[in-house]
Write a structure and sequence with these properties.
34% helix, mainly alpha, three-stranded parallel sheet, single chain
Length: 110
């Protein structure tokens, strides 16, 4: 697999104080997947990251990050997987689901 960071680099930035979250394993819009496939994809992402940093994964930054990349099933799945917060790359909130639709600045926009 070709990752942006090596396992050693990921562990180093975590140990330096960076918060590490999930982003999905296959990097596709979660809304394009069934609820079961969303769950399995995120569970795999959590498992891989947790095996490297040896800590619980509490945050997700959704692949693609726009509002159309998530749906009601996504919110249900992130709650089931016990994420504390979810981040979009869009300046919107979903009423009553603000913890899972927090706007963020995309690194390509800096």
């Amino acid at each position: 697999d070709n990752f942006y960071l090596t396992k050693k680099e990921l562990k180093n930035i975590y140990n330096s104080g960076m918060i590490i979250g999930a982003h999905g394993h296959n990097h596709v819009p979660l809304s394009s997947m069934s609820e079961t496939d969303q769950y399995l994809d995120l569970k795999k992402s959590i498992h891989i990251i947790k095996s490297i940093i040896e800590k619980d994964i509490n945050f997700i930054s959704y692949p693609f990050g726009d509002l159309s990349s998530i749906n009601k099933s996504t919110i249900k799945v992130v709650k089931e997987l016990k994420f504390k917060f979810g981040f979009l790359a869009e300046n919107v909130f979903i009423k009553n689901e603000y913890k899972f639709t927090i706007p963020r600045i995309d690194c390509v926009d800096i």
